[in-house]
Specification:
Elements: H1 3-11, H2 18-29, H3 35-48, H4 52-63, E1 79-83, H5 91-100, E2 106-110, H6 120-124, H7 136-146, E3 148-152, H8 159-170, H9 177-190, E4 195-202, H10 211-227, E5 231-238, E6 246-247, H11 249-260, H12 266-282, H13 289-302, H14 304-315, H15 321-324, E7 334-339, E8 344-349, H16 351-361, E9 377-380, E10 387-388, E11 393-399, H17 402-415, E12 416-419, E13 429-434, E14 437-440
Parallel strand pairs: 1-4, 2-3, 4-5
Antiparallel strand pairs: 5-13, 6-9, 7-11, 8-10, 8-12, 9-11, 13-14
Bound molecules: uracil (URA).
Uracil (URA) binds at residues 165, 179-180, 183-184, 207.
Length: 442
Amino acid sequence: MRAYDIILKKRNGEKLSKEEIYFFVHGFTRGEIPDYQMAAFLMAVYFQGMDDEEVADLTMAMVESGDKVDLSAISGIKVDKHSTGGVGDKTTLVLAPLVAAVGVPVAKMSGRGLGHTGGTLDKLESIAGFNVALSPEEFIKQVNDIGIAVIGQTAKLAPADGKMYALRDVTATVDSLPLIASSIMSKKIAGGADAIVLDVKTGSGAFMKDLEGSIQLAQAMVKIGERVGRETIAVISEMGEPLGFAVGNSLEVKEAIATLKGEGPEDLTELCLTLGGYMVFLARKADTFETGKEMLKEALQSGKAFAKLKEFVKSQGGNVHQIDDPALLPKAQAISQIKAEKEGFVIEVDALKVGLGAMYLGAGRAKKEDKIDHSVGIVLRKKVGDKVLRGDVLAELHYNDEKKLEDAQKIVFAAFKIDSRPPQKAPFIKAVVTSKGVEKYV
Ligand code: URA
């Protein structure tokens, strides 16, 4: 077999065999196939696409390019959740303790933020002492002891994906459906998931800007799950505006704490109950999605979910006083307000612009090596549909460095669009994709 022939075959729109895909992916991972041939292969896939069987083979080739996490020492069905990434997306901080509180084992690996999107590990590290680097043994033991652990993903997991992603980033081949779907699913499967719930975002702050594209991505991932024996359900939700009100690490932890006490924003609460309902159902802790959702509502109201968060933070070395009193979390030195210049209704809060604004303040990284400031970020005071008067506060910028403020102020101000007429109310959850089909709510 030769790499050249495989590139040529794909370039000409022919279907690749499992052997050809494995040969290419594993040869590349071992360094035997050079970057330039992989780059050409990725571009051929970008233009010619792949059928369902090829995408599943590509996924498993990436899974088998490195270590697989063995979660068999944890009893029960391990359901993992993955978000395609958004702004103000603190879902894992809420969802993980919430489902753990009703007996779904959570053995989760998370990532760091890059660009305008944040990462769960950075958010957790706003809590003093929180350790995301447990050994594999500590990780399994903690899940068996308290039902939940969240750690950083190791480079040994699906290494082909890491190497391929780096090339995609510089060859304009990131936004290819088969490549995104296989990349995401390979990491979940290598991470030991028995079943998967996908949190697919749609809108300006998301990978996929339109609903149809998001549904296609969700369908591609659900089909991979079906082919490789991991039941997969995808929930598609709005990311035109940020999720909740807070964007930035410790500000998001604060909002997650409020949500686990049943006092969170409506959109975040709805998303967590929906994703969680499916997780409880797939873990076979409830007979239906609806029952799963009811169990989670009860866990929020009874205080069980909040208690689980404290147990989780304590077990990973974090300062529980900061959970009891979020005012003790890292706090920026100053707050600057963005005000409305006219009266009307907010018709848009562009998530991408708000995410970039938070990054300019230091909450996110422009490059992987950048250091982040856990205390800074943005709190929205108005969201889409809200009525505003001239001079009303639209957002607060929590900052430490005057020099970083001006660019952030400009872009956050530009994120808001105000009109004399109210916007049409659209449902926050747009669609659910399962192996049975697509249920649309719009
Ligand atoms: N997230 C991933 O993990 N991979 C992609 O290709 C895109 C988003």
